[in-house]
Amino acid sequence: MSRRISDTLRLLGEQLDPKRRVVRAGDLIYRAGEAFDNLYILNSGICKMVSLTADGREQLVSLSFRGDWLGFDGLADGHYGADAIAMDTGEVWSVPYQTLLDVSKVCPEVLHALHTSMSKAIARDRDSLMSVCTLPAVARVADFLLNWADSLADRGMRTDQITLRMTRAEIGNHLGMTLESVSRALSRLARDQVIGFATQGRRDVQIPDAGALSAFVRRHLSAAPALLQ
Fold first, then answer.
1. Which end of the chain, C or N, has fewer beta carbons within 10 A?
2. Same domain assignment for residues 114 and 16
């Protein structure tokens, strides 16, 4: 998977000649409501999508990692639907949508890469919704950590320790939980020895055995139908 992502990025870099921009934590890539002109590709780093609810509260919608495309939410009505914000130092490529369409006519591999990314984004949103709707709080947090680790593994990065570039409040916002519930869930996972903490600030989460974390989620998932009755 890591090689496939690297190969795809190489293809896109060569065929699309994107505009490259270095971003740092907190930098805005695009804002909700802006006119849709470009799609963006994350060459390195992590970013988050944040939208406003009807009552004006911020909602963390999703996370994106190296190789992910950003801006699909602008295709429908010509305006981006959420803010895209960098969470650490990285590089973002911007590609005019018209350029993408033109290149896709002569290079089917680019169109395939676009469709693949769209499909993954749909599947990721579906899985995130299922997690929020069917899993108890502690399993939601475990599933969140597992998905983060899996995303890093797909990109050839270490997964035995991940640095959470989010506050407990942001994690809770994303998972439909309170800050206190997130803290209790992390403490429960640590007591059950499926995760550990490498630093006093508890931002560096150790995952000694991803299989054990996955099994923890599956145990709760098997009871999910009862939650829907």
1. C
2. yes
Same domain, 140 and 124: no
Report which DSSP code applies to 161: E
Global confidence as pTM: 0.88
Tens of each residue's pLDDT in the chain, 229 residues: 777 999 999 999 999 999 999 999 999 999 999 999 999 999 999 999 999 887 778 899 999 999 999 999 999 899 999 999 999 999 999 999 999 999 999 999 999 999 999 999 999 888 888 888 888 999 999 999 999 999 988 888 888 888 888 889 999 999 999 999 999 999 999 999 999 987 665 678 999 999 999 999 988 876 554 444 3
- 178-186 contact pairs (CB < 8 A, 24+): 181/137, 182/137, 182/141, 184/137, 184/138, 185/137, 185/138, 185/140, 185/141, 185/142, 186/141
Asked whether residue 96 falls in the same domain as residue 166, the answer is no
Is 41 inside any structural domain?
yes
| Domains of the chain: total | 2
Q: Tell me the residue length of the chain.
A: 229
Q: Which residues contact 193 (CB under 8 A, 6 or more apart)?
A: 208
- Say how far apart CA 140 and CA 182 lie, in whole Å: 9
Q: Which amino acid is at 187?
A: S
The answer to the question of residue 229 being in a domain is no
Domain span at residue 78 reads 2-128
